[in-house]
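Section 5: illustrative case.
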């Protein structure tokens, strides 16, 4: 089954678990549309890329690359949803979801 790229990820059950009131500590890292970041993001709970990241995402709980997002680098996370472009390897210990708009080279 292919996920809908327009899906509001905040409505997914696992996202509610990550951001719900029972979760005591959380970090949400957002790279917004039109922004470009170079470097490493480490030990973040939720990473959402709508812009461009050249670097690595390491030890994240969940990573989302939106349809407009681009990552040139690697991902190590518990789970990920990829709707944009990733040029590099993706390693998840749990669920990896690729939407029909995803392009992965790595």
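Designed sequence:
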């Amino acid at each position: 089954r292919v996920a809908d790229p327009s899906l509001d990820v905040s409505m997914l059950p696992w996202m509610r678990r990550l951001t719900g009131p029972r979760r005591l500590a959380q970090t949400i890292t957002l790279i917004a549309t039109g922004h470009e970041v170079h470097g490493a993001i480490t030990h973040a709970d939720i990473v959402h890329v709508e812009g461009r990241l050249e670097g690595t995402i390491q030890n994240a709980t969940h990573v989302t690359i939106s349809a407009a997002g681009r990552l040139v680098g690697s991902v190590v996370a518990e789970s990920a949803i990829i709707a944009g472009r990733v040029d590099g390897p993706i390693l998840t210990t749990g669920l990896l979801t690729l939407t029909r708009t995803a392009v992965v080279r790595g």
